[in-house]
Amino acid sequence: MSSIFDFLVIGSGLAGISFAIRASKFGKVALITKDKLIESNSLYAQGGIAASPLSLQDSVEKHVEDTLKAGDGLCNPEVVKEIISESKSAIEELISWGVEFDKENGEFSLAKEGGHSERRILHRGDYTGQEIQTKLIETLLKSKNVEVFENHMAIDLITKFKFIGKRDGVEDECYGAYVLNKKTGDIEIFFSNFVILATGGAGKVYLITSNPDTATGDGVAMARRAGAKIANMEFYQFHPTVLYHHKEKNFLISEAVRGEGGILRTKDGEPFMKKYHPLRDLAPRDVVARAMDTELKKSGAEHVYLDLTHLPKDFIIKRFPKIYQRCLELGIDITSEPIPVAPGAHFMCGGVLTDSYGETTISRLFAIGEVAYTGFHGANRLASNSLLECIFMSKRALKKCLEYPKKIQIPKEDIPPWKSEKTIPQDEKILISHAWDEIRRLMWNYVGVVRSDKRLNRAYERLSIIKRDVMEDYWKYYISADLIELRNIAIVAELIITSAMARKESRGTHFNIDYPFKNDIDFRRDTII
Ligand SMILES: Cc1cc2nc3c(=O)[nH]c(=O)nc-3n(C[C@H](O)[C@H](O)[C@H](O)COP(=O)(O)OP(=O)(O)OC[C@H]3O[C@@H](n4cnc5c(N)ncnc54)[C@H](O)[C@@H]3O)c2cc1C
Description:
Largest sheet: 7 strands, mixed
Shape: globular
Number of strands: 18
Structural class: alpha/beta
Bound molecules: flavin-adenine dinucleotide
Strand content: 15-25%
Radius of gyration: 22 Å
């Protein structure tokens, strides 16, 4: 099957859905998503969305300053200013789509998180992402002109250079994507005037992560294979407080818990953050994650504790209903006992390089949301800034699409159906799950919160062997969702390792013990692959 659309949106998180809602007013939209429509990182966002100025004390300038400080010298200040200046109108737009934020006495209830100098985070309890996704999906499904394809997984992008060949002086452009229909096993072609990658992050590249199973870096891997530029993949943000429990693999304990007074303690009860940063438990995430790593290595423990037992019980239950409930189901009453937590891969600060309109280095291919690197987050993302970026960039990207003077001429006759005649059934599925596990452990052990040249070299060598096997299997067997994701995490892991090897300094979320300091002379620049 092949279909042609004006906009092909890949991914149904906040970036993809908000783009589809907007674009549906201007043309025919296909929104494909590899799982259910609601499933995404966006769904699990707890803390909220940052905007300014929402109080008399706050200003755009202060929010810009906090963002630049967190980004540690690598943000693009113009992009930061543009996004934050528009943050209030982004919130108004969300509200116009039905999203509700908590209020107190008629005013927005504003939360504070690490790295923010003011209270400026709008939230809905501790389930802000669920509120946003639910309301946006209601709006999307009412929009005319949008066709939603659940259980459809993009495999590869279709580009001019791939099928027509590369020619000097000619720009590459994107025509669509090959897509696996996970229900039927068929591989379909979606042609489109514009392709919008909104596939989110890649937390599943690491063993411990706050991300759901869908976060396998597919967009970055597809863009890389298509020849687009990728930036700053060494900067993976680790969230300090992922619940450490054998029955729950990726449940986040929001930073807002520390914002409201939660204290990190060692297993002996010592509040250790005072040794590491003047902001103590509200220090930037990378500082907290490294401090935890140091404490864990020192004690040999597998987790530390986050303690909020000194806060009023009613307040905890009202402010953090979801965290309270989930922990209680697992046998932890957070009002009377501390929560076991460990750092986990949380946010991909780098991604597919785009201009300030979300267009990649391949014409008509856009990347928005966590999959992209716009320069907004630099070397480290400020908490609650990513939902803001999603909503802003979906508007900007559409603006640029609408400025294109004419529709694309797709040479459909030159684009073959997916080649599958040589594939044989995969009889050893266990090999796929072993390779998944090997990559995730290797990344966790050698390319995690604290890195060194030796660890990175070792990771590179080991990954090369695994990757060779994965690529061989990929072309031998019937294609499956697991195999596609495995190939993608192998590519993303390689991008992270090679970018980390190239950065011989420590900055933002990238910390290498062999170069523990920042080197502005040689490395105040993006790592572009
Ligand atoms: C637990 C958690 C809490 C967070 N809390 C906050 C917060 O409070 N504030 C904040 O600003 N940020 C927060 N973040 C980060 C924020 O949620 C994400 O950065 C943001 O939601 C990313 O949105 P997105 O639309 O770019 O991607 P996502 O929301 O991840 O959506 C990606 C979509 O792409 C689909 N997809 C992926 N690959 C393919 C493929 N090959 N084919 C088809 N579909 C595909 C996925 O299924 C998914 O629907 C949090 C993240 C997590 C995990």
